[in-house]
Predict the 3D structure of the following.
Amino acid sequence: NSDLWDKCMYVRLGEICDFQSGGTPSKNNQKFFGGDIPWITTVALNGSGIDGSDAVNWITEDAIKQSAAKIVPANSIMIGTRVGVGKVAINLVDMSTSQDVVSLIGIDGTRWCKEYLCKCLTGKSQYLNSQARGATIKGIKIDTLANLKIPEIPIEKQYEVSRIIDKTRIIIEQRKQELTNLDELMKARFVEMFGTPYRNEKGFPMMTVDDIVEFIGGAQPDKKYFEYEATEDNIRLIQIRDYKTDNYVTYIPKSMAKRFCDVDDIMIGRYGPPIFQILKGIKGSYNVALMKAIPKAGNKEFIRYFLKQDCLFQYLDGLSQRTAGQSGIEMSALKTYPFPYPPIELQEEFEKFAKQVDKSKVA
């Protein structure tokens, strides 16, 4: 109901709760550990309720009295402010947290639904991460949390909004699983029709990936030329993360664009983890972390699913290495990988099957 949001008032988070920082007891003091108080870090913040089963450690009353650790009353909201900025949870039991977690306590339960507040905070996680500062470990200050604006709607509507979001999440997860199952079906059908490349059970003429596919790396201008609103003079800069979310849409001047892709092109993530993601669906100018696979021969959909095979990914992943700990594709290994080449009629038969599955994906 758009009227609900248009007419609602906003309050600052700092107006509806108190903030309590956590702390880590010294591991050198054995009296602080082995107690009955669950102690958690941001790892436990799962977006919903947590209890003792989520504890990273168990601490004692001495730890509460003699260290920076504090008791967080049950049914408070916890939010990560370092190493997991923006992650949230509601503690269902009294517990304690590390210094990377700030707890929102003293919330009036007659005015606010905790689950609704959690979802409001989750919706601001991108903003919170953009505000994180620090030379080594980045974090946000309590002032940043306190100034967040929260839509104040009647509490019965808060519960309704929370339930709708929960139901929507379930539907999304079910749909993701359906799409995963269809992808697995495609892979199974591919192996059924063509076998595995390194075995070549079907006895097709043996070639290499380099014989069949050309790979064109991406390009991009300096970051100072990046733009964040579409105009007639710019074009979308496609990055690996854009295939998962539209939260980071970036543009560059058309005059500086050098590499272009269409929605149906075979795009590959060069770096990871995971490396060698086979992607499609966006039109624009692709950056240096992507490359485009252009068929020299054969059917595009057949080649797309050849490149999607688990055995090829596992081979390349095992070889991948790049400086600064970021893995990358070993191009010489990719180009020399065996490519059994089936008759074009068989490739086209597979394409028909792929199109039927694609129809199921959008149904």
